[in-house]
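Hey, I was hoping to borrow your eyes for a little while. I've been staring at a protein lately and its backbone has me curious. You're getting the sequence in one-letter code plus the fold written as tokens. Would you mind checking whether the tokens look sensible for this chain? Here's the protein in full, and shout if anything looks odd to you:
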Amino acid sequence: MAMGTVTIVMYHYVRDLRRSRYPRLKALDLDLFREQLAYIKRHYVIITMEELIFAVEQRRGAWRLPPNAALLTFDDGYLDHFINVFPLLDEMRVQGSFFPPARAIRERKVLDVNKIHFVLAACEDPSEIADTVWRAGAAHGLDLAVANERAPKSRHDRPEVAFIKRALQSELPREVRAPLLDKLFARYVTEDEAAFAAELYMNVDHLRCLMRHGMFIGCHSDDHVRLGQLDAEEQARQIDGALEFLVEIGVDLDGWVMCYPYGDVNETLLEILRARRCRIGLTTRVGLAGAENDPLLLPRLDTNDLPKRADAPPNQWATHAGLNGYASQGGR
């Protein structure tokens, strides 16, 4: 059995899609989440973030972790996590680690990434949005076709959707994409951004409740931007603003953890994190985490990389982790 590695699982939206106003949203259905939790509990030992930090900092060779260790992480601070995820974790007595972007919680602003998701979920024909994006680029003398051709293929999106996401996240200049995205959000979703944000994200009281029940709260930047594309001054502002927010809600920064929006990180950002004594950094790179990794660059698996049936046999990732029919009794 594998000791010294951990399977870190990454989640975003978790909701009852059949009863949702946005059934086309790319989310994990709540029933499938229950099934996957049962699968993980059956085949892994679910550890806490504190256990992982201790293992990383005490390492002499391989990390000292339970066989087939797993860690559950939840990005973006969604109300889904409080309403749907937290009760299940609490009932199972296992810890989840939650990473809210500070500004979305403090100011009730819908993040650009979420505006894109819900515009796509609300529009029946993504080609309408793609045409609008192409025209916006052309109007500003931008050839989005070149950027689209050189972009890496998406693991989870068809090409047209991947193009829309890339253009509205980074390829269009900020001064072009911000007003365009606001216009699309108002057209397809709602003009009341604050009300929508209140439905979408947890608030401070929710986060404090999670902490009282043993959940871990970490840093996901201030504005959920691509940190690797910022200069050092703006990177520091993004981290410091988020850390101030964590202090406000009662997080002990002696053991704080970073989760990179979009998995975007560079050496300048790593220097800033080391200077602020960040213990662990979570990327979106696919893989199992072990002592061979820089603690600030740990890979994760997406929920789609693991089975969503409680009775499923171990898949290839479980095989990589060294599972041989081991049944977990793990909890927090």
Remarks:
- The first strand starts at residue 5 and ends at 11.
- The chain has a mean pLDDT of 91.
- The two ends are 21 Å apart (CA to CA).
